[in-house]
Amino acid sequence: MKAEQKPAKIGILTVSDRASAGIYEDISGKAIEATLNDYLTSTWQAVYRVIPDEQEVIEATLCSLVDDEGCCLVVTTGGTGPAERDVTPEATEAVCDRMMPGFGELMRAESLKYVPTAILSRQTAGLRGSSLIVNLPGKPKAIRQCLDVVFPAIPYCIDLMNGPYLECDEAVIKPFRPKK
After folding, report:
1. Which pTM value belongs to this model?
2. Where in this chain does the record put each MoaB/Mog domain (predicted)?
């Protein structure tokens, strides 16, 4: 890491009516944070939010994490299924300038190795300004499975958007960056 580089800010957003109401503990957001701690060796700061399944609230929170907090990456969990209140992908699409459909395609393909209901998941990803937003499922085990397959592309994606340089523990996850 370059000495003058500030810690990368990464948003962790749990979308859950029950977790936001305190009915149960947010284990999904903590699973994202633990996974990122396993992956990253560069200094980073989590900007953590737990909110209800309300599209306007999700949109406003995503905008705030990117525009106000300066997160180069926002990873969401929850709200990606077929239930009526599962609107995280719609909120993500509403605030993004461009969508990155390959992320959702790859996550579903990986999840299908474990559960046939993976086809019901609507994970997606998109770009807002110079930030990447990635929607993950709500189950902690599925979070790790999905991040394991898409994260190798994330540091280079952030490089291409002139974001902070994310260094990884290559014994845990090997990011792809083209040879110079």
Report:
1. 0.95
2. 11-157
**CA neighbor of 63 nearest in space, from 18, 108, 97, 27:** 97
pLDDT tens readout for residues 144-161: 999 999 999 999 999 999
The mean per-residue pLDDT over the stretch 128-132 comes to: 97
Burial of 133 (0-12, 13-18, 19+ CB in 10 A): buried
Read off the pLDDT of residues 61-76 as tens digits, 9 standing for 90 and up. 999 999 999 999 999 9
**Tokens matching residue 174:** 């090997």
Token pair of 160, please?
């291409």
Domains of the chain: 8-160 (3.40.980.10)
Give the whole-angstrom CA distance, residue 108 versus residue 102. Answer: 10
